[in-house]
Every structure is written in structure tokens, then in C-alpha cells.
Amino acid sequence: MDLRVCHLYPDLLNLYGDRGNVLVLERRCRDRGIDVSVTRARVGDALDARTQDLIFLGGGEDRQQGVAVVDLRRRAADLGAAAASGTVILAVCGSYQLLGHVYHPAEGPALEGVHLLDLETRHPGRGARRLIGNIAIECSLPGVGALVGFENHGGVTDLGAGATPLGRVRVGYGNNGEDKTEGAMQGTIFGTYLHGPLLPKNPSFADALIGLALRRRFGEVRLAPLDDDVESAARRAALARIGASYPTDRWRGRGAASS
Amino acid sequence: MSLRALVGITLGKLVGRLSRLLRAGGGTTMPGRVARAVDPAIIAHLAADLRLGSVLVSGTNGKTTTARLIASCCERGGWRVTHNRAGANLHAGVAAALVSRTSAIGRARGEIGVFEVDELALPRAARDLRPRLIVLTNLYRDQLDRYGEIDHIAARWHDALSALGPGTTVLFNADDPAVTAIVARLSLPAVPFGIEDDRCGRPSLEDAADARYCYRCGTPFTYRVVFLSHAGKYACPRCGTARPDPCVRADAITLRGTTGASASIAWDNGTHLTVDTALPGLYNVYNVLAAAAAAAHLGVSKETIRVTLSTFTPAFGRGERLTWNGVALQILLGKNPAGFNELLRTVASASPTALLIAINDLTADGTDVSWLWDVEFEMLRDLPSTVTVSGLRAHDMALRLKYAGLPTDRVRIIEDLPQALRVAAADAGTGGTLILLPTYTAMLQARDALRSMGVARGFWED
Ligand SMILES: [Zn+2]
């Protein structure tokens, strides 16, 4: 069994330690005896997205995203077809915004996205606060539990009917700082503001993505459990640091009371 | 001198004396805060009295060491220098330095000001000080939660520098395309410096390098050699934009692990000098080069520069070597991926008997520790020693090391830093070497711990 991972724009969208996610996907497969190939595709490179099981995109500065989106539009149909065939796409931070319909910047013309996720993002204006800080969400995927990370975005995102939130915000801002939604899922496409190294401290989410990506060519695969002591300790420490209670079932109680 | 400025000076001095007396800390900025509260224009007033003008040093990495080196050259050259203390690099720190070097009747004791300023503080400091020289070291991604993207800082620097007249010269790192892009659009007199010795470089960029794309046309730069993060000999294959030829160059570089480096520094007019410094790593060769170029521009003699740079004692956290119970202890501050990668390269070549990494996520460190995944900790894989991790984000660091390929039994987690220091020193053993790589607040914490054990001096003593 093998997993074909593509890191799209690793030199362009790599703002917050995004490559950590690829390291985790590789390691968690290899530790289970699953071979992994990682293709690094840059602007202009030939890539048949439909040959890939999992495509990852990170975040970039405004200028870099401007360069990336031009190339991304050229690949939109191919990426859409791949996702329809079961390829998992994970986009964090800036690239999450680009997968939507449109980005309205603080000033200047709107930036058209690639319409793979039913969402829109707008920047509320030069003086608006950035949404920065530690964040914890309760993931909507069954069995995944809490996701912990860091967000840093100026744009606020609203989901359309075609996308469902990746999770509910417990601590932090999420999509827009208002409706408590965070991220988006649409078929096998996932987007989130939990930027940079999202997967290292959230191994259950990493495994959910790996399982889903393998399903395309190998059907339902049972992933062997791994020694996650270091991951669990880092998760617990991070959750404690941001003042979220743990484990997640206690969270649900608290969330229900406040919503 | 206005009455208002005098009152500000008097009150500022009083507060400074009190905080030193009480050892309350804050002595490096409080006098400045008080003086500015009384007279918001205090920096401009006091700077105008500096007979030989002032020098500003800014950039992501190296500004503290570079400014200290320049100040030392000026002092040895016979000038009385007003210089802000390490870390006190916002407006209050600059004001505090000026206040403390002004007599009670408002007369400046310093002849020349040498100030390191935070990247975001540079615009206002430049406006208030009207410096004769601005030294720009580099621009790397750093604490994105606080500084934002480097394009954002670059835009603010450009706006600030555009407002200055030709009385200001910009001395800049030609190897850094992000810095060069700013200076290229200015009409100020500019002097580029850079490293010539290709043997110190590598053939390709690291993952986390930022300014890979031509700032004129967006084409990826091609690099003949990469020295440090995105600094190197770059050129755009499409529009011809390229690294400017430096007017001050470092060549024939020898790096001696964590114990120092030597280099030959040459000027366009044919003069040159050979510097042997206790400051370790290629990143410090840049600092020494920038300082030599700045001091020469100010008129310090080459021989004075050579002696100063070759006898300079590194500061705490920036290469200083301490001895603690028979263990040689060296603390090297790491703040961002570019800096940390260079530290790891230096540490890996030195093979210490014990290594301690302390990561905090307080405001001064950056509250987002995502950057740990941009650092190539894979370089530690072949280090024989156990690695101890500490600080508020010790567990994040341990996780990063796991994915860097270090076996988990070679990584020990001790969140409490004083305790971690003791254990790591015991690991090193008598006659051994312990290297501590801390973030900023972890460095201050280590300093407090070592001071209480009589190993390091207090911050009010340097
Ligand atoms: Zn070009």
C-alpha cells in the first residue's frame, strides 16, 4: 500500500511552518509500513492532480498568494476532478481562502478564487483587528475530537450552503469571529485557519485524512495505532496553555451551556 | 533646552536611579517613558545635541550585536557614545539612553548616538533622530503574530526612508534581496556590504526562505550561492535584477564552531583588514562586516576597527562563554527560523556534550510557535548528546524533535528552566560543554537563574 502526497507550492505558500503537515503525513504512514511519495509541485510544474491521493496547500503572504492563485486557477478543473474521484485536498490559512469563490481585500479589486469550496472571504478594512491567537475547535469529523492550533488572519470567511464547518470554535475566532464556525469541508476538500503545523498536535485528524486518502485506491483501511505519547503531551500542554479544558467530552458540556 | 524637556530629563533620571536602587528592573526603559510622557519630542531635542549625529541599526537579526560593535569602535576611536541597552530598542529605550547621557542642566554628555531599533520602531526613530547613517542588517520572517509579513515591514521602511534627506546614508546588506529591494527604490546615498567567500555558502535555499521571487518581475531568483536563509548571490534570470556589487566585502572566512570566526574585510578603495572575532557563526560575520563598514563610514580608523572587533567580548546570550561548576556554558539566543538554522549549523559543527533548547511563547518571543517547523532541527540528528527541552512550549519542541528524527529516548522534557539547566549541566559533566538555545524571554529567565547562582551578571551591570 502507498500514499501519494502532493505538496503544492511548497516554496510559495510556506508561511508558518506548513511543511510540518507533510512531515507528519509521511511519518505516520511509514511507521505503519505504508509507502509514501511526496511530489513538490511549483508554479508552472506539470501535475495530474487525479494521480494524487492527498494534496496539501499552505499559507503565504499577500504577494505570494497573488502569484499562487493565478497558477491555481489554471489547475482548478483538474483539482475539482481529482476531488470528485476521492483525492483529499487540505488547505490551510491563505490557501483556504483561495479555494473559495472570492476574496475581497481591504482595498483594490476582488480576487477570484477557484470555487472548490462554497465560501467567500472579505477583509473588513484597514483598521480592522486581525484574528490572531491560539485556537481550539471541536472537529465535526467523527472520532477526531478537539483540534488545537494557532490562527492569524485579516480576512473573515462566510460559508455557503455547500460547505459544512470543519468544527465549532471553543477558544479563538475561527472563520469570522462571530458564528463560532471554523474551517470548511466539502466532500474530500478541507480548509481551515489553523495554520502551519496543524497535523503534528492533532494526530487523529492526520489519521482521518490518511484513511480517507487511502480509500480512493485501497478501500476501507484500518490504520494501526501508533505511539502518540509525545503528541498527546504536546496537545495537552497546548490546550492547558490556551485555557481549554480537556478531554473533549468536558468541552462539549461547556459548549452546550454557552451556545 | 525647553523647561519641559528639562523637567522630563530630571524626572526620567530620578526614576532610573530609583529603579536601579530598588533593583526593580525596567531601568533600561522607565526613564525614557517618563521623559517622553513629559516631553513627547524629547528624542528629537536630545538627539539634536549629539555633535557627531547618530547611527540607527535595524533588521530582523543581528541588530544588537552590530550596534554594540559600532558603539565599541566609536568609543575606542575616542568619542563619547550614547547607546541604548540590549533589548531596549523601542522609543522608550532610545529616550532612556539619551536621558541618562544628559547632564542635569540638559547638556549632552555623548557626542555620537548609536541605537539599535526594532523593525517597527525604525520609521519613527528615523524621523526623530534624523540619523547620519542607517544600517539595515536583514529582513527575515519573525514573529508573524507581532510584525506581520516581511512585505509589510518593507513597505513601512520604504515610506520612512523616503522622507529622509541626503544627509542620511543607508548601509545595507546587498546579499538580502528583501533589503536591497527597499534601498533600490530610494534616492538616498547607499553603501552595500556583502559576503564574497562562496565556500561559506550552500547551493540551494532552505524551505523557509522568504524573498525567493524577484521584487521587480516576480520570477524566481537563481542563486549562485546561498549564505543565510534568503541571503546570497542572487539574480533574476528574466529582468536582470541582481545583487548589487558590495562596496565593503568579507572574504577568506574561517568559522571555528562556537568559538569564533575570522575574515578579511575589504573596501572599494583598496584598503582591507583582517578580523579575528570571538563571535561565532556566519551570522556574526555579517554583524562584524556591517559594523566595520559603519565605523569606517563614520571615520573611525581601520586599525581601531580591527583592534575593537578582534577584542570584542560577546554579550550574554550572544556568544558569551561562562564557566559553571567546571562546565563551559554558552548561550545563543534564537528568535526565528533564519537565526535558529544558523545556530544549529554552528552547534552541530561544535558537537557540545549537552544541548538545552528552551522555547517560550510570551509576547517578546512571539506567541505563535509554528515557526519551530520551519527550523531544520534535522541537523541535530547526528549529535551524540541527549537534548533537553524546556520552557512554556517544551512539549511543542519535543514533538518537533520527534519528527526531525531524534529518538524519543534522546529527548528529555523539563519544563522548569532552572531545573533543566542543572540537569543539562550534569549531563555535560566537568570539562564538558553545555549549549543553551533559548528564545528571548527564556534567555532572560536563564540569566536570572544563573545570576542567583553567581554565574552571570545582572542586567543593570552591563
Ligand atoms: Zn526580475
End-to-end distance of chain B = 30 Å
- The low-pLDDT segments of chain A are 245-259
Main sheet summary of chain A: 6 strands, mixed
Q: What is the top-level CATH class of one domain in chain A?
A: Alpha Beta
The CATH architecture assignment of the largest domain in chain B turns out to be 3-Layer(aba) Sandwich
Alpha plus pi helix count of chain B: 15
Report the span from N to C terminus of chain A.
44 Å
Under the CATH scheme, which class of the largest domain in chain B? Answer: Alpha Beta
Domain count of chain B: 2
Annotated CATH homologous superfamily of the largest domain in chain B? Mur-like, catalytic domain
Number of beta-strand segments of chain A: 14
The parts of chain B where pLDDT drops under 50 for at least 5 residues are none
Count of discrete alpha- or pi-helical segments spanning 4 or more residues of chain A: 6
Number of strands of chain B: 17
Description:
The complex is a heterodimer of chains A (259) and B (462). By secondary structure, chain A is an alpha/beta fold. Chain A contains six helices and 14 strands. In chain A, strands 2-1-3-4-14-13 form a six-stranded mixed beta sheet, sandwiched between helices. A four-stranded mixed beta sheet of chain A has the order 6-5-7-10, with no helix packed on it. In chain A, strands 9-8-11-12 form a four-stranded antiparallel beta sheet, covered by helices on one side. The N and C termini of chain A lie far apart (44 Å). The C terminus of chain A is likely disordered. In chain B, 36% of the residues lie in helices and 20% in strands. In chain B, helix 4 crosses helix 10 and helix 8 runs parallel beside helix 9. The two termini of chain B are 30 Å apart. Chains A and B meet through helix 1, helix 2, strand 8 and helix 5 of A and helix 13 of B. Zinc ion binds next to loops of chain B.
